[in-house]
Amino acid sequence: DAKTTQPPSMDCAEGRAANLPCNHSTISGNEYVYWYRQIHSQGPQYIIHGLKNNETNEMASLIITEDRKSSTLILPHATLRDTAVYYCIVRTTDSWGKLQFGAGTQVVVTP
Amino acid sequence: NAGVTQTPKFQVLKTGQSMTLQCAQDMNHEYMSWYRQDPGMGLRLIHYSVGAGITDQGEVPNGYNVSRSTTEDFPLRLLSAAPSQTSVYFCASLSVSYEQYFGPGTRLTVT
User: Fold this and answer.
1) In Å, how far is A61's CA from the nearest CA of chain B?
2) What span, in angstroms and rounded, lies between the C-alpha atoms of B92 and B3?
3) pLDDT of B6-39, one tens digit each?
4) Buried/exposed A82-109: b ≥16 CB within 10 Å, e otherwise
5) Which positions in chain B touch A42 (Cβ < 8 Å)?
6) Residues 6 or more apart from B97 whose CB is under 8 A from it?
7) Cβ–Cβ of B90/A43 closer than 8 Å?
8) Per residue in A36-78, pLDDT tens?
9) Which of B31, B38, B67, B90 stands the most exposed, by the fewest C-beta atoms within 10 Å?
10) Residues of A in contact with B93 (CB under 8 A)
């Protein structure tokens, strides 16, 4: 599976949009981009995933560049409860068992 | 649905003791997996299963055994606990739309 690069940390003001970047320049054509988050001391939580089209659900939006080498997770109106470590992962749907979590981005939402 | 449940929440073992971490899901997911998370690090895959009767090793399988006799349950056995196995253990299952759901974790300390 392709590796990803994320900034180690970022701050966001409450009520503003949080834009989390992820670089996956070696992504293959059949690999999906997945985003998870982990709030302190809890299990990771699935957020969203996509292949090449932009995706939106009740939690977030996922914007994937046309060349698929990078993506951005958008939390439209950050709240204090969005403070967490966010993980970007790329993988094929048949390699999920080897899901590799990196260090992620620590997002701190401030009042 | 209860989702993915894990027991116990906390456990302290002495070196050399054995124990089983329990994991169950009520979503009828075929795919399940076990991860460990050490302080300040991402998750590492221990073992996974693609269905009842089928298991395979992940990134860090040494010292752990698994079995999958039913779709619902996927226990993780520590054969002879070592201090290096002090960690937080997460069980997860995967939906048919490739959304991964994690349990709340078991915090294990080996002295």
Assistant:
1) 16
2) 10
3) 999 999 999 999 999 999 999 999 999 999 998 8
4) bbbbbbbbbbeeeebbbbbbbebbbbeb
5) 104-105
6) none
7) yes
8) 999 987 888 989 999 998 999 999 999 999 999 999 999 999 9
9) B38
10) none
Q: How far apart (Å, rounded) are the C-alpha atoms in residues B53 and B67?
A: 7
Total residue count of chain B as it appears in this document: 111
Structure tokens at B105: 């974790």
Q: Which of B21, B24, B30, B3 is nearest to B73 (CA)?
A: B24
Cβ proximity of A12 and A22 under 8 Å: no
Residues shown for chain A = 111
Please list, in sequence order, all residues whose beta carbon lies within 8 angstroms of the beta carbon of residue B66, skipping any fewer than 6 positions away.
B34, B46, B47, B49, B55, B74, B75, B76, B77
Pairing between strand B10-13 and B106-110?
Answer: parallel
Q: Give the gap in angstroms from C-alpha B33 to the nearest C-alpha of chain A.
A: 7
Q: Does B94 touch chain A (CB under 8 A)?
A: yes
Give the residue from chain B lying closest to A88, CA to CA.
B42
CB contacts of B43 in chain A (<8 Å) are: 44, 99, 101
3-state helix/strand/coil string of A48-65? EEECCCCEECCCCEEEEC
Question: Does residue A6 contact residue A103 with C-beta atoms inside 8 Å?
Answer: yes
Q: With CB atoms and an 8 Å threshold, state whether B100 touches A36.
A: yes
pLDDT in tens, A80-90: 999 999 999 98
